[in-house]
Specification:
The complex is a heterodimer of chains A (258) and B (212).
Chain A: H1 15-18, H2 21-37, H3 43-60, H4 64-82, H5 85-88, E1 93-99, E2 102-107, H6 108-134, H7 137-146, H8 151-179, H9 187-218, H10 235-257
Antiparallel strand pairs in A: 1-2
Helix pairs in contact in A: 2-6, 2-10, 3-6, 4-6, 7-8, 8-9
Chain B: H1 10-34, H2 39-53, E1 57-59, E2 65-67, H3 71-78, H4 80-98, H5 106-132, H6 136-164, H7 170-202
Antiparallel strand pairs in B: 1-2
The chains are: A mainly alpha (258), B mainly alpha (212).
């Protein structure tokens, strides 16, 4: 396993890392809910949320550059979905351009909607990055199980987390082999190669799944998984959870009043 | 097609979350009842397979690229409810690990790429195999049409959710999403066919697994 891209900084030891995964998951969910529910154009509230996230990232000792880089990888997809909005929203015209045969108009209200969506998506993405880079995936899954996520899903996710690395290694080896054999040419031909690669990968994954199951049964697997690490909810979790929720409630009340 | 947080309004978030929770709950119930413990590691490895397969991008017109969704493939092999379960796990992992798709938007994403894509893919496939027979030709044609249909329908539902939330007018987002994904669907279809034909050639027994 050469790439720990998944929960890269989750083995550090900060205040945020020590919080119970359940506390972190629920506060992240509340935070995203508060962000999504914020009415448009409350720039002050958005600034407050950004400030909270920035403080938490600083507390967590996860490098800010890493968080920003991760969030910027996703943002192009967000902008791609949202890019049409300013051109089609009705309202006061901000500018009108002739692109070849089309007359394109951009409206102020459209630009505002775009800005709101992009900032909301960005804040949510930052909070999710904070969650996964301060929580080990195994602990997060254990927390989710105790928050009543169905056992079968937790188990599928645990197997998935375990085998993603193996399969990604496999994909990279196949990709290297493909590229070293002059991969290219017509699109249809590329699809055929990719199809064959995925077919091979599928058969290999399936057979690996069979071997894994046989190995587990040989070691006494009967549908239960047992782990040694226990989660514990400490006073720090209670303080953090209550404090964080209070800030969110106050800002929501502020939103309603003004 | 992964919707981030911030695009959907709260009514759409609540509706899709409720529908997806019901669908996933039923899938879990059926899996517990009908599938043995043997299928759990298998579904986990298959979910990891779909996750890894989504890393291989294929080129589409105009410099853009798409990647496999995999719902139709999972549903054809293990049945639509198992497809829902596998795709939900893939989408949860993508949202948590890569922030690809939001956390509150998970309900919508599971509905589009899990429920709609699995069921449409599976039943289109079944319809074609009913018409053409269960042989190699029926399986491959069914796989292609099912995979294409699953991507296309999921994109349409996704466009409707975005339009209902006021993120984009329906007259723009629907043709854009439908047109773009009609192209991506061809890639999905061809890859699904390639996987199915390789499975038929080497491990034909995998097409006779217990389905839910």
């Amino acid at each position: 396993m050469k790439h720990s891209f998944i929960d890269q900084y989750s083995d550090r030891d900060s205040f945020i890392h020590q919080l119970d995964p359940r506390t972190k998951f629920i506060t992240t969910l509340l935070f995203i809910l508060a962000v999504v529910l914020t009415p448009p154009n409350r720039w002050l509230v958005f600034a407050l949320y950004l400030f909270i996230i920035a403080v938490l990232i600083l507390l967590s000792t996860v490098p800010i550059r890493y968080v920003l880089k991760r969030s910027l990888v996703i943002m192009p997809f967000v902008v791609l979905i949202a890019i049409f909005i300013p051109f089609f929203k009705e309202g006061e015209v901000a500018g009108s351009y002739n692109i070849w045969l089309w007359e394109v108009t951009v409206t102020y209200s459209g630009l505002q909607v775009l800005a709101n969506i992009v900032i909301k998506a960005w804040l949510s993405i930052l909070s999710l990055i904070l969650l996964t880079s301060t929580t080990k995936m195994t602990n997060l899954l254990k927390g989710l199980e105790q928050l009543r996520m169905p056992r079968v899903m937790v188990m599928i996710l645990s197997f998935m987390y375990r085998y993603i690395f193996v399969l990604v290694d496999e994909v990279m080896r196949m990709r290297q082999a493909r590229d070293s054999r002059n991969f290219g040419g017509k699109r249809l031909w590329q699809l055929r190669t990719i199809g064959n690669m995925l077919g091979t990968l599928f058969i290999r994954s399936y057979e690996r799944g069979e071997r894994v199951y046989a190995a587990m049964v040989a070691r006494g697997f009967n549908g239960q998984t047992r782990t040694l690490n226990r989660l514990n909810f400490t006073p720090a979790d209670a303080y953090f959870g209550v404090g964080f929720s209070l800030i969110l409630i106050l800002s929501s009340v502020f939103n309603l009043l003004y | 097609m992964h919707i981030p947080d911030g695009f959907l309004n709260i009514a759409t978030v609540a509706t899709t979350c409720a529908v997806s929770a019901g669908g996933v709950g039923n899938a879990v119930r059926l899996a517990n009842k009908k599938l043995g413990e043997k299928q759990v590691p298998l579904m986990g490895v298959l979910a990891a397979f779909i996750f890894a397969a989504q890393m291989l991008n294929f080129p589409i017109a105009g410099g853009t690229s798409g990647h496999l969704i995999g719902a139709a493939l999972a549903a054809i092999l293990l049945g639509p409810w198992a497809g829902v379960l596998i795709m939900s796990c893939v989408l949860i992992a993508q949202s948590l690990i890569f922030q690809d798709g939001g956390l509150l938007a998970l309900g919508a994403n599971i509905f589009n790429m899990g429920i709609v894509a699995s069921f449409s893919g599976y039943y289109i496939y079944r319809l074609v195999t009913l018409l053409l027979g269960n042989g190699r030709r029926g399986t491959l044609v069914g796989g292609f049409v099912g995979a294409w249909g699953s991507v296309f329908l999921a994109a349409i539902v996704c466009a409707i959710e975005l339009a209902v939330s006021g993120a984009s007018p329906i007259g723009v987002v629907l043709p854009a999403m439908a047109g773009f994904h009609a192209l991506i669907g061809i890639g999905e279809g061809l890859i699904t066919v390639a996987v199915l034909s390789l499975v038929l050639a080497t491990r034909a027994d995998l097409l006779q697994l217990q389905r839910i």
